[in-house]
Amino acid sequence: MKRTFIIFFVLIGGFLLYSNLSSLSFLPVGLSKRTADVNSKVETIHIDISSVKTTIIPEDREDIKADLKGKGKVEISKRGDTITVKYKRKPFDWFSSFESSELLIYIPENYDRNMNLTIGSGDLLFSGTSPSKPVHLNELRLNVGSGDVQLASLALDTFEGNIASGDVMITSLSTNRGTFDVSSGEVSVKEYKGELNADVSSGDFFVHMNELVNSIDVDLSSGEATLDLPNNADFKLRGKVSSGDITNDFPLHHSTQEKRLIEGTHGSGTHLIKIDVSSGDFQLQ
């Protein structure tokens, strides 16, 4: 029996050593690439992280660089027109999960093509310098499995957000077309500008606009959704309810308000707002 235990612990020790060779700085096999040039052929930067606090920092540079403080492994790879930054924890790190790691990713401030952000868990911060000096991108795709995400000062052609869980806070987002698919969690968007399409299955969804410049389409299956518009917003409202409520704080003319239907116009009705509530509560304020 004693010999069996010795063999067991030797095997466990061997497994831990083998799976973490890359964390031992004195072994050359542990080296991984943490920089990559961002030339005109690069169309997409993909950042894939889990269980780490991450900050994306735009600055005056021509490459992408990753600095890791703490446990885990980060690697930058380039394939075709895509650069991928990937972070993962190692099996032995489960025994020291209380130790937090921090990842800093530096990108060229003039990069203006596509970016994919995949967050399994942990924290992510990505921001332009200010609303007057935002990050400009053609497309930003945000996929959140869990964790806390903060985005700010972004000017995009297209935004696509898929939030399964966690907390997402966005401030000063301007886009020609924005799409949100919220399964759970809390999503708060302030100073949003552009077309908005949202499918909310559950959780809380809040959007504030300083200016209404395009159409809005929201499907609410469950949970709560709030749309905060300026007093001078110019729109035509079409709201339909299967179960739940639509609350409207705007005075409407040419209006129809029934138990399951609300329609009307505020201003000249330039922009269409469509609300479809299967269940849950929607508020227009």
From TrEMBL:
Protein name: Lia operon protein LiaG
Pfam families: DUF4097
Taxonomic placement: Bacteria, Bacillati, Bacillota, Bacilli, Bacillales
Domain (DUF4097): residue spans on this chain: 43-284
UniProt superkingdom: Bacteria
